[in-house]
Amino acid sequence: MSISVLLVDDEQLVRAGLRAILESQPDIRVIGEAADGASVVPLVRQLRPDVVAMDVRMPLLDGIEATRAVLRAVPDPPRILVVTTFENDEYVYEALRAGADGFLLKRARPAEIVHAVRLAAEGESLLFPAAVRSFAAARGGNERAREAMDRAALTEREAEVLRLMARGLSNAEIAGHLVIGAETVKTHVSAVLAKLGARDRTQAVIAAYESGFVVPG
């Protein structure tokens, strides 16, 4: 089954490079391009991509606001990867908080770009490295996030799964670590997301860090 991708970047050269890399893969096809975040919502409605690879900094509407716009306006929205030059950019973290599923460095190797798109489409792994976690950790102890975590009342196993998610483990890796079945892990992950009111595992992990439930280190 092929993965359809919409590219959004104000630099044509970047779009052309990403298109060439992604379309070299038999399971990925680029179905559209846009030069600014303001075009994203109508294109997503029209093309229904599986993944949007979107620059975090654009002149008219940046990737943060474009992400919010897609999630507000589109039922069953696509996975969103924010594309950035620097991984320690607070814009990236704010885009993740807004609902993006992960991020992609413009200088990444072709194999890494392809892998990131596939991971985003699968939704079972976390594109949330240490440099971005530091922004979440700096917000640890957020009272609202702490109250939401308390209300979630996670079971002991769900809490264990969330901690492993925060370490960046995939469902298969969590299953191996806990010596349980992959389907059981999926069930626990779904329960964690539902209890936290999180759209996906990225949002759940942000909540875990900002509440102080997970501490880096």
Secondary structure topology:
Blueprint: E1 3-8, H1 12-22, E2 28-34, H2 40-47, E3 51-55, H3 63-73, E4 79-84, H4 90-98, E5 102-105, H5 110-122, H6 130-138, H7 143-152, H8 156-166, H9 171-178, H10 182-196, H11 201-210
Parallel strand pairs: 1-2, 1-3, 3-4, 4-5
Protein name: Response regulator
Keywords: DNA-binding, Phosphoprotein, Transcription, Transcription regulation
Organism: Streptomyces milbemycinicus
Task: Walk me through this protein's architecture.
By secondary structure, the chain is α/β, with parallel strands linked by helices. The N and C termini lie far apart (38 Å). Helix 8 packs across helix 10 and helix 10 crosses helix 11. The radius of gyration is 17 Å and the shape is globular. Strand 1, helix 1 and strand 2 form a beta-alpha-beta unit. The chain is built from eleven helices and five strands; from the N terminus they run E-H-E-H-E-H-E-H-E-H-H-H-H-H-H-H. It has a five-stranded parallel beta sheet, with helices on both faces. Pfam families: GerE (PF00196), Response_reg (PF00072). It comes from Streptomyces milbemycinicus. This is Response regulator. Keywords: DNA-binding, Phosphoprotein, Transcription, Transcription regulation.
What keywords describe this structure?
5 strands, 5-stranded parallel sheet, 11 helices, alpha/beta, single chain, globular, 217 residues, 53% helix
